[in-house]
Amino acid sequence: MSPAADTRDRLIDAALELFVYQGYAATGLAQVARKAQVLPGSLYYFFPTKEDLLLATLERRKQTLYEGVLRPIWESTNDPIERVFGLLAGYRQMLELTEFKHGCPIGNLVLELAETHPRARGLLVQNFDGWLDAVEQCFASAQDRLPPGASPRQLAVFVLTTMEGAVMLARAYRNFEAYDAAVVHLREYVERLLVESAARQSSRRA
Amino acid sequence: MSPAADTRDRLIDAALELFVYQGYAATGLAQVARKAQVLPGSLYYFFPTKEDLLLATLERRKQTLYEGVLRPIWESTNDPIERVFGLLAGYRQMLELTEFKHGCPIGNLVLELAETHPRARGLLVQNFDGWLDAVEQCFASAQDRLPPGASPRQLAVFVLTTMEGAVMLARAYRNFEAYDAAVVHLREYVERLLVESAARQSSRRA
DNA sequence: CGGTGTTGGTTGGTTGACCACCTAAGCACA
DNA sequence: TGTGCTTAGGTGGTCAACCAACCAACACCG
Question: Which of A11, B85, B114, B199 gives 20 to 30 Å between its CA and that of B35?
């Protein structure tokens, strides 16, 4: 890796963390540079404007979704339904490790920037889409165990809304009560869909 | 109302909207004063610091929860379960009316301020608590129609996480697909709890 | 009644810090 | 020698915070 690519990466890493931790507007470029061990001027060399830096972080986030988020869980879990809940457990673990400092990296920025930064919104949506695609695939490959009317995509959306809301409440309360309650109910719901479908299939066979 | 209380109120009203619309950090005090038709100096008379203004808006939000949010729905709907979904419909309507500009007033600020403003976090939690109390009461007064193990509080938490997540996705995508999908699934889940309980009761009677 | 001090609220402008943004000189490596 | 990158410094602008002068309403007292 060239030295330039290295500092560029360090800048994105630093910005990624600061934007998620304290918001976009509240983060100064000088602070990003300091955290990345780079002089403020260099920052301008790679990212002409602050928004360019923001877009680069979102692009990075999108590209590391599989490597950083999905793969560790996909490798430890095979059952598609359990993979979904493994994902939820992963976010829980992140909250735990960072003592609720980091929530969902996308969610925070959506609420802050959706109205004011249209280009960022586009990338945020792409990030959500990537996540939804992955979860949709889980449900799709378990579709034979689900009721016939169940839409994998809509189930994925439900999982994402639950997760985003749960992360938000966990950060607000600084505990896992709400997060765990939400996941328990989501599991109850999915469980019911599974047994319903199983009952239907066995009755058809009979 | 004294003229002073009036300008104070106007300031809180203006700040309330701006903080929700464009975030806390991104909102300048001069902008708040302009919107409230007040000179910047007066702002300092009522609120020594920007954070004091923030806390006042959260206090106000807490006190207007019933009047502004719950009452209109409570009055048009009697069934406790339908009241819960009426609440969700109300937030949907707000998104529609404001063209996705306003999300949940509390949720936005939670993600922005939870880590950096501990006093604000306390008030944000109080706001969530008030909302949760109301929804919990709904489920509690329908408890005879729910399975015996169902906890009204935990159900309320599930509703809140769903709502917050749904609002977030609606704002990101600028459409209601995700919002509606989430609400549909939540309804499916509650519906299943109701019929389950009904079946159990009729089988006991038999 | 009327003059006088006090209080609650307003005005407009200042201050110092910080911000994103910009530049031009310097560096190392090819 | 040239190119890619880094460095230090600087500019204009905006921010929260602050202030001193001001004003109207009121209370108190001669």
Answer: B114
What are the φ/ψ torsions at residue A24 (nearest 5 degrees)? -75, -50
**Distance between CA A80 and CA B185 in Å, rounded?**
19
Cβ neighbours around A89 below 10 Å, total: 14
Q: CA distances (Å), A24 to each of A36, A120, B86, B96, B110, in order?
A: 16, 11, 34, 26, 14
Q: What domain range is A70 assigned to?
A: 64-205
Query: Beta-carbon neighbour count of residue B70 at 10 Å?
Result: 19
A69 and A42 in a single domain? The answer is no
Q: Are A33 and A112 contained in the same domain?
A: no
Q: How many CB pairs under 8 A join A and B?
A: 152
Q: Is B25 on the interface with A (CB under 8 A)?
A: yes
- Write down which residue in A42, A57, A72 finishes a domain: A57
**Measured distance CA(A25)–CA(A66) in Å, rounded:** 28
Instruction: For residue B15, give both structure tokens.
Output: 């700040």
Ordered per-residue pLDDT tens for chain B, 206 residues: 444 568 899 999 999 999 988 889 889 999 999 999 988 888 999 999 999 999 999 999 999 999 999 999 999 999 999 999 999 999 999 999 999 988 898 998 998 899 889 999 999 999 999 999 999 999 999 999 999 999 999 999 999 999 999 999 999 999 999 999 999 999 999 999 999 888 888 876 66
- Cβ proximity of A159 and A137 under 8 Å: no
Structure tokens at A116: 């004011």
Assigned domain for B57 exists: no
Which nucleotide does the CA of B51 lie closest to, via C1'?
D16
Distances (CA, A) of B96 to B18, B100, B101, B168, B170: 18, 6, 9, 13, 10
Cα–Cα distance between A172 and B125 in angstroms, integer?
A: 6
Residue A166 with chain B: CB contacts under 8 Å: 161, 165
Closest CA to B118 of B51, B164, B64, B26: B51
- ipTM (interface predicted TM): 0.91
